[in-house]
Design goal:
The protein is of the alpha+beta class. The chain has helices spanning 16-43, 64-69, 88-94, 96-99; strands at residues 7-9, 12-14, 51-53, 61-63, 73-76, 79-82, 105-106. It has a three-stranded antiparallel β-sheet with strand order 5-6-7.
């Protein structure tokens, strides 16, 4: 038995016959843990955005729900742009193409109300 190394663990000895199974179990465990972590990271990927950068003053964050309620937004070429203050809509409307690459969401679909 010179040169044969036997490792012991709680389950018993791990000789050359069982080392492959041990490595496979470790790799499987690491893979499953990776899936769990990645799944948790992407689970939030489908939550709606709550804040967005102002289209004009891009360092300012805007709460989408509050800006929508106050009509602090403009729709341009199928996208909705939000504003942080009363001066921003006028600047945007004066030159919307200038701000078209700013943060935006798709313009919400109009829902028709039936009487």
């Amino acid at each position: 038995d010179a040169g044969l190394v036997t490792t012991y663990n709680v389950a018993g000895p791990i000789g050359p016959k069982h080392q492959g199974q041990d490595i496979l179990m470790k790799k499987s465990s690491i893979f499953m843990l990776s899936l769990l972590v990645c799944g948790a990271a992407f689970a939030n990927g489908h939550k709606p955005v709550k804040t967005i950068a102002c289209a004009v003053m891009t360092n300012n964050k805007v709460d989408i729900a509050k800006a929508t309620a106050k009509h602090m937004y403009a729709d341009y070429k199928g996208n909705r742009y939000f504003f942080c203050c009363g001066g921003c809509p006028a600047a945007f409307k004066a030159n919307p193409a200038k701000y078209a690459k700013a943060a935006h969401i798709p313009t919400p679909k109009q829902t028709s109300k039936k009487a």
